[in-house]
Amino acid sequence: MTHVLDTIPAPPAAVPVAARRPRAGFLLPLALLSPSLVFLALFTYWPVVEVVWDATHAVTRRGTRFVGLDNFAALFADPTFQRALLNNALYAAGTVVPSLVLALAFALALNGAGRVRALMRALFFLPVMIPLVAAAALFLFLFLPGIGLIDYHLARLGLPGANWLGDPDLALAAITVLTVWKNAGYYMLFILAGLQAIPDEAKEAALLDGAGPWQRLRFVTLPALRPTFAFVGVIALLNAVTQVDHVFVLTKGGPSDATKLLLFYIYEQAAERYDAGRAAAATVVTLGLLAALTTLSLARGQGPEAAR
Predict the structure, then answer these.
(1) Shortest CA distance to 95 belongs to which of 233, 301, 276, 302?
(2) Nearest alpha carbon to residue 163 among 140, 136, 137, 180
């Protein structure tokens, strides 16, 4: 005899909410990220695609023609580009390392509370607030041969002056000094933040072990600041390639191409010579160098863990 309960169909198994709405957890983050993704696509990724397209094409009277790597071959055969590449390498080495060393010195000296230290931090940061064009105009009065402030004080000391911006051996060093003065205070802020993030326990343990100031700096402070230096180093490298306003104001790439940097070379090829293909090829090379240096800097900043 069949039981009455056996004839009642069993209720359907409960379906989890995540199974019924598999896309619910995906659509909301995508909707929130969509404005940023659209912005990146329009102003970052699409321009990169256009630059790569222009670098592999040439504009002729008959229209656009695919030329492959011809623009790159002509670029590396150009002695002016070779000079600009060398100038930018020297400029980066002369600005990144001194700026970071000065920023570290400022941060170590001004780390802590106090009105005097706060005032000095504001003074060191003040050059960052000055636009680069205005800073270049200010340094133009310093570098004027004979009547500039540098030559004036050298003459009072009985020392000869120099044509700081007109001498090919001195011009690149002159704009390097300007860049270091302009950026050191900016990097100081990041290093100050890194110093304040070092645990007090590490400092106290070093003091209990009898470590001196140099040993604490070498074995406690600098290892703790490695990620900070990696991040600041990337910013400094980007500034060394992208900051070119002072070159326009002070030297316009001269004398004798002594201060012609990569971005100024790209500007010349695109805006003055109307060679969009070579300018795009130089841009692709610059982006590749920046990507490689950024990856190397960030990998080294993670320490031995990144290598494993």
Answers:
(1) 233
(2) 140
| 74-84 mean pLDDT | 94
Joined together, the tokens standing for residue 125 give 């940061």
pLDDT tens figures, 5-19: 555 555 555 555 545
Q: Which DSSP letter does residue 117 get?
A: H
In which residue are the tokens 């200010």 written? Answer: 138
Segment holding 42, helix H or strand E: none
Amino acid at site 15: V
Q: Round to whole Å and give the CA distance between 306 and 122.
A: 36
Q: Give φ, ψ of 274 to 5 degrees.
A: 55, 35
Q: Are the C-beta atoms of 137 and 249 separated by less than 8 Å?
A: yes
| CA dihedral of 242, 244, 245, 247, whole degrees rounded to 10 | 170
Tell me whether the omega of the peptide bond preceding residue 16 falls within 30 degrees of 0, making it cis.
no
- Predicted structure pTM score: 0.83
Tell me the C-alpha distance between 92 and 277, whole Å: 26
Rounded to a whole number, what is the largest CA-CA distance in the chain?
Answer: 124
Return all residues near 80 (Cβ < 8 A) that are at least 6 apart.
257, 260, 265
Joined tokens for residue 21: 């709405």
